[in-house]
Design brief:
heterodimer; A: 112 residues; mainly beta; six-stranded mixed beta sheet; five-stranded antiparallel beta sheet; 0% helix; B: 116 residues; seven-stranded mixed beta sheet; four-stranded antiparallel beta sheet; 11 strands; 52% strand
């Protein structure tokens, strides 16, 4: 079993839709949870960073962490064609200088 | 803030040659830098972790003599792929961590390597 599981998609939605991206994990030591956006042939860009359980909102993006279920989500409201990218969840047991484990990424396409 | 650059952005080389990739933190000092490798439609795989002034720590299965990492300063780390072969063709991405107080790693734009 992989430490982090992420549905690879692809996920195709119409512009304006609410998008839900999810990851599950097995390592209960994970405490720091990140979501990255990666455009084709580019490096990952940090979108959201959360510590422990709870919700965090930033503009159209909301990250949720449920440590009891070992489940994290990223919601994108009012999705735009520019949101089309691969979204990677990532998590670590310690702060950023420690090893980060990535999901395989979900490819999202927002259709105008 | 938290900008990381990589150079070159892409490189094509002949089999048997060595290729050096630079990773720079432009607006912060990086106590730790990470090197990842990403194959098409796959996630990032950590290759090694380097701390400024000390030897890199390689992940299991990564040949340290083939992938030489140098972290000579707080803003620069280099990855040298020695005697490159076609199977080394990949997307190499570095990330940098700014030390105590920094939340997480910040990634460079990546370097695409094609070995012919």
């Amino acid at each position: 079993q992989k430490e982090v599981e992420q549905d690879p998609g692809p996920l195709s939605v119409p512009e304006g839709a609410i998008v839900s991206l999810n990851c599950t994990y097995s390592n209960s030591a994970f405490q720091y949870f990140m979501w990255y956006r990666q455009y084709s042939r580019k490096g990952p860009e940090l979108l959201m960073y959360t510590y422990s359980s709870g919700n965090k909102e930033d503009g159209r993006f909301t990250a949720q962490v449920d440590k009891s279920s070992k489940y994290i989500s990223l919601f994108i409201r009012d999705s735009q064609p520019s949101d089309s990218a691969t979204y990677l969840c990532a998590m670590s047991a310690q702060r950023g200088y420690q090893k980060v484990t990535f999901g395989t990424g979900t490819k999202l396409q927002v259709i105008p | 803030g938290a900008v990381v650059s990589q150079h070159p952005s892409w490189v094509i080389c002949k089999s048997g040659t060595s290729v050096k990739i630079e990773c720079r933190s432009l607006d912060f000092q990086a106590t730790t830098m990470f090197w990842y490798r990403q194959f098409p439609k796959q996630s990032l795989m950590l290759m090694a972790t380097s701390n400024e002034g000390s030897k890199a720590t390689y992940e299991q299965g990564v040949e340290k003599d083939k992938f030489l990492i140098n972290h000579a300063s707080l803003t620069l780390s280099t990855l040298t792929v020695t005697s490159a072969h076609p199977e080394d063709s990949s997307f190499y991405i570095c990330s940098a961590y700014g030390g105590t107080g920094a939340e997480t790693q910040y990634f460079g734009p990546g370097t695409r390597l094609l070995v012919l």
